[in-house]
Design brief:
Blueprint lengths: L2 E3 L3 H6 L3 H11 L14 H6 L3 H15 L4 E4 L2 H4 L2 H11 L3 H11 L2 E3 H8 L12 E4 L14 H7 L5 E4 L16 H8 L4 E4 L2 H14 L4 E4 H5 L15 H11 L2
Parallel strand pairs: 1-2, 2-3, 4-5, 4-6, 6-7
């Protein structure tokens, strides 16, 4: 079976280590995924501005890029739903039946990464290690499109050494960092976590603004970046250990 990893431009820009982390995680689990160099996701923006013809041309390129793969794995809930949403609309709007059928075929083979790990692989032991206090953001993007729902949270709970807390209610979206907003951002900071994690890079852009505005240092990581870390990677540089890890270290030192 041929597997491909699709990493969006936004993910690559905001979290340049995401593709490497996803590949590392998949290969640890025996999935020899490829990362097609010619992949491009600029077409989703064209749809927002009504450029259907240009979008259709770019979607042709997307289909050609991923046509030979049996499964396409995407570490993004919203972008994983593009073929079954924006791409189908664009293909239909320009009257390209062949493109519409191609897009529908691609859509059936696309899998958001946390859903892939749980639904297709049976939630195997990921061998993940992350000894830090982490605030998990239940971003609304994780409930739409490919909808991983609770899967990211359940996978994070399996991570060795993690001190996992939540700060956003089920179904809530984080507030944009405007002068009148920020309630969700304040809740994230009030957890005492040193790392905020979400399944969407755009959501992490907002949480990064929250912490910068309040002058409190918090690392912003994609869920996959945590799941990919193993014990041999050790703790993150410059990030305090979780309470459990500090206690364990103190116990060892006291012997």
């Amino acid at each position: 079976m041929r597997s491909a990893l699709f990493v969006t431009g936004l993910d690559d820009m905001l979290h340049p280590g995401l593709a490497q982390a996803a590949m590392k995680l998949l290969r640890r689990l025996g999935v020899d995924a490829e990362l097609p160099a010619q992949q491009d996701c600029r077409h989703w923006k064209r749809s927002e501005f009504g450029h259907r013809d240009e979008m259709a041309r770019l979607i042709h390129h997307f289909v050609e890029t991923f046509d030979g793969y049996d499964e396409i794995i995407v570490p993004s809930a919203s972008r994983g739903g593009l073929p079954s949403e924006a791409y189908e609309v664009a293909a239909d709007s320009v009257g390209d039946l062949g493109l519409l059928m191609d897009v529908q075929g691609i859509a059936s083979r696309m899998h958001e990464l946390t859903k892939y790990l749980t639904d297709r692989m049976g939630a195997p032991d990921l061998g993940a290690f992350f000894p830090h206090r982490v605030a998990y953001h239940r971003a609304c993007r994780g409930l739409r499109a490919t909808g991983p729902g609770e899967r990211p949270y359940e996978l994070l709970r399996q991570v060795k050494g993690i001190d996992l807390v939540e700060f956003s209610a089920h179904g809530e979206c984080g507030d944009f960092p405007t002068p009148g907003g920020g309630d969700d951002g304040s809740r994230a900071l009030d957890t005492g976590a040193h790392v905020v994690v979400a399944v969407e890079s755009s959501c992490l852009l907002h949480t990064g603004t929250w912490s910068a505005r309040d002058g409190r240092a918090m690392r912003n990581l994609h869920v996959v970046e945590i799941l990919a870390r193993a014990e041999e990677d050790g703790p993150l540089d410059g990030v305090p250990l979780s309470g459990a890890e500090v206690a364990a270290a103190s116990g060892l030192l006291g012997r």
